[in-house]
Amino acid sequence: MISLRLLFxxxxxxxxxxxxxxxxxxxxxxxxxxSSGNPYLGNDGNSIADHKWAHEKENTFYFPYSNKYKMPxxxxxxxxxxLFNDRVEDIIPENHIAHYDLNKLHSTAxxxxxxxxxxxxxxxxxxxQEYWDNLLQLTxxxxxxxxxxxxxxTSSGDIALSKLEAAxxxxxxxxxxxxxxxxxxxxxxxxxxxxxxxxxxxxxxVQKERRSAMASARNELLFSSLGPKTSWVLWLDADxxxxxxxxxxxxxxxxxxxxxxxxxxxxxDDQAKKVQIRPYDFNNWQESDTxxxxxxxxxxxxxxxxxxxxxxxxxxxxxxxxxxxxxxxxEMNLDGVGGGCTLVKADVxxxxxxxxxxxxxxxxxxxxFAKMAQRLNYDIFGLPNYLVYHIEETxx
Length: 396
Ligand SMILES: Nc1nc2c(ncn2[C@@H]2O[C@H](COP(=O)(O)OP(=O)(O)O)[C@@H](O)[C@H]2O)c(=O)[nH]1
Ligand SMILES: [Mg+2]
Description:
transmembrane, alpha-1,6-mannosyltransferase activity, golgi apparatus, membrane, Mannan_Polymerase_Subunit
């Protein structure tokens, strides 16, 4: 028997061996490891030449460097043959995965020119035809205007809903270029306050409960309707019945994070025998030392609301800063706002500023929102000479 050592010696001496051995070894490794489908290499016996990429299987292509041939990144289409048509696209809507780059979403001083989307949000207890007519006379392009409403689950909410739906139907079935880009109508989760008399609604005791319910309604509306394309949110109460036609262009042009118009009221003055105006919304104010001092002495759950004689806060109320001879674009700093007519950059809400239903720095609802926006480092402004009008209440 030849020993192994001798065999190796003889083979090494043979020149054929020196040539053939590396070739044989390579062929052996190829068949053993690669061709036989070694699972560790992950190709399971398939040649790399036969490998199908996802887009090839799905029959879709995506050209990342070409704008001209932009195709959806994702597709659920299955390859279909003339015989078997696997119509997955019937079940899963196409483009239901959408991409939005929030870095490219802006809210600028030239909103209309830059095609920025504005979402007008209105909590609505009563449908006033004057509100709707005023809304329809706004000149901001409708294709960039979305509307959102929330109505209470009360009998007055039911009436408002049917009137609103009729009005909406009329506009949205009219000429295409007259339609709003989207309209959302919500019914409130909680009941809401029905038919409180004007005096009762403003009684200090019911304020906390009422404003907390209003804050809930505003939050429900906001969080259900703010979309990835929204640049601005305009809070417009359902009883604001007169504004300048260029309201949105005028207010966006100030380019402020939060900006309130001055809410006044027109009324018939019996003595003067003519229509006069008077201040209405006292929730737009600048903080005072007195109010801060009062707040300090309050219990954690107490709130400090504006507009009550028995609680003098000495806050500077924007309502009293109106100057009929002043420039309509004059601005003033504010610390608290109302919801009558307030424009907010959508990013302020996206950053987390909402309407506290609980006392937040002894403030609630829209005034609490202003405080929250300030804590998020946004500045708040008002337009004392830019008037919008609240309906004159007749429910006495
Ligand atoms: N969704 C909803 N909206 C309400 C409710 N109460 C009032 N509103 C609406 O909220 C806005 C402000 O309410 P309002 O009573 O006019 O407050 P005021 O103007 O400060 O006296 C208006 O647009 C009302 O129509 C409610 O319970 N639920
Ligand atoms: Mg009102």
